[in-house]
Amino acid sequence: MEDKIKNLKENANRILNEITSTQELEKLRVEYLGKKGEIVELLKGLKDIDKEKRKKIGESANKLRDYINEKIEKKKIELKEKEYELKINSTKHVDLTVPININVGSLHPITIVQKELEDIFTSMGFTVEDGNEVETEYNNFEAVNVPKFHPARDMQDTFWLENGQLLKTQTSAAQNKIMRKYGAPLKAIFPGRCFRNEALDASHENTFFQMEGMMIDENVSISNLIYFMKSLLSEIFKKDVTVRLRPGFFPFVEPGFELDIKCPYCDGVGCKVCKHGGWIELCPCGMIHPNVLKMGEIDPNKYSGFAFGLGLSRLAMMKFGIDDLRLLNGGNLKVLKQMRIK
Ligand code: DAH
């Protein structure tokens, strides 16, 4: 019996030395330490030998089991390390000195401007809302105080779907939904793509981008509107801008204004950007019409607010010095690459 133990130990050691994978190791474990393994068989045989020897051999057999177990565990760690090393050596190394591919894509100029504005507005406590591109006639016109036969509809001819819906002509189309969603007080902006049936030229496109904003609360007045617009535009142009208001007609605001800024590029002296007029017409705005508040389920006797519509396409043209609106949607990479922000 003692010889058998000795042989088992030698055999196990020999096999352990030859093993090169965890699968082989597992096989060895089952063979020696498994339920029907060599050690169990050995212990079973103890009952046939006399009592005095049994204790000693029993101890030797248990020692052998612990010995093999320990060896297997050690071998396991060794093999795992080797396998890991092999894996690392077989994967290709990344060469950090290779120049990056300069043909990677970049954000569209309008997206760049939109993101900048969203940052400014969210820092002022506004939420950013989504609007639809396909809208109902009600949201696009009725809910912003432009009933069916109102002449203002003529200025916003658009593309109609067979089901009576339309491609939205203005971001104002989301006003009603947002008022109903949040109620008052409310501070939200909603950027989006708009569509109109236009005769195309350098400043008219069938597809363009706007960003609408609304602020509604108790006691909001024109002074708030002017102060807010001035701070906002100063942030956008990164300098203190001078604003002026002219009366403007938009059915959803009363009073309504055209807001101009003194040209930030020439300080009002006259340049290409302001077409030598010294002022740039930038942002129509006004105090939200009581009818519009009512349709949005907000009580006009308690709340008032202002709304404005920023032309994102227009701002992108100014920022990147583009003089033809059509270039923004043209998808010409030679043009767009020049407006990449690094
Ligand atoms: N929705 C108008 C347009 O597309 C722009 C506009 C004007 C938005 C005045 C406003 C506003 O919120 O108060 O022409």
Keywords:
42% helix; 7-stranded mixed β-sheet; BirA Bifunctional Protein, domain 2; alpha+beta; 9 strands; two-stranded antiparallel ribbon; 2 domains; 342 residues; binds 3,4-dihydroxyphenylalanine; single chain
Concise account of the structure shown:
The chain has 342 residues and is of the alpha+beta class. 42% of the residues lie in helices and 18% in strands. Helix 1 runs parallel beside helix 4, helix 2 packs antiparallel against helix 4 and helix 5 packs across helix 10.
Explain what the structure shows:
- With 342 residues, this protein is α+β, with helices and mostly antiparallel strands.
- The chain has two domains: 89 residues; 231 residues, Bira Bifunctional Protein, Domain 2 (BirA Bifunctional Protein, domain 2).
- The protein has twelve helices and nine strands.
- The strands form two sheets. A seven-stranded mixed β-sheet has the order 1-4-5-9-8-7-6, sandwiched between helices. A two-stranded antiparallel ribbon has the order 2-3.
- The termini are far apart.
- The model has no long low-confidence stretch (mean pLDDT 92).
- The site of 3,4-dihydroxyphenylalanine (DAH) has 12 residues, from β7, β8 and β9.
General form: elongated
Query: SSE string, helix = H, strand = E?
Result: HHHHHEEHEHEEHEEEHEHHH
* Poorly predicted residue ranges: none
Helix content: 40-55%
Let me know the average pLDDT: 92
Architecture of the largest domain, CATH level 2?
2-Layer Sandwich
Quantity of strands, as a count: 9
Q: What compounds are bound to the protein? A: 3,4-dihydroxyphenylalanine
What is the end-to-end distance? 80 Å
The fraction of residues assigned to DSSP E strands is 15-25%
Radius of gyration: 39 Å
* Biggest sheet record: 7 strands, mixed
At the first level of CATH, what is the class of the largest domain?
Alpha Beta
Number of helices: 12
